[in-house]
Write a structure and sequence with these properties.
Elements (H helix, E strand, L loop, with lengths): L1 H46 L16
Length: 63
């Protein structure tokens, strides 16, 4: 009887663990896809040229 409860608990724990791991990985990929363009823009601005085509950034007029 106790063995059945322990077996059920272990199976439920493992199923929850693997389901959570998979969902977390998918969420991380979506977040990465959304964040990548922003990081590229930030890097381009800090370096002063386009990270994709290496064209120099035009100076902005002072206000």
């Amino acid at each position: 009887m106790i063995f059945d409860y322990l077996l059920f608990a272990m199976i439920a724990f493992l199923a929850g663990y693997f389901l959570g791991k998979r969902l977390g990985r998918e969420e991380g990929r979506e977040e990465g896809k959304a964040l990548a363009p922003l990081l590229l823009r930030e890097q381009s601005f800090a370096q002063g040229y386009c990270a994709l085509c290496r064209a120099a950034r035009l100076p902005s007029p002072e206000r």
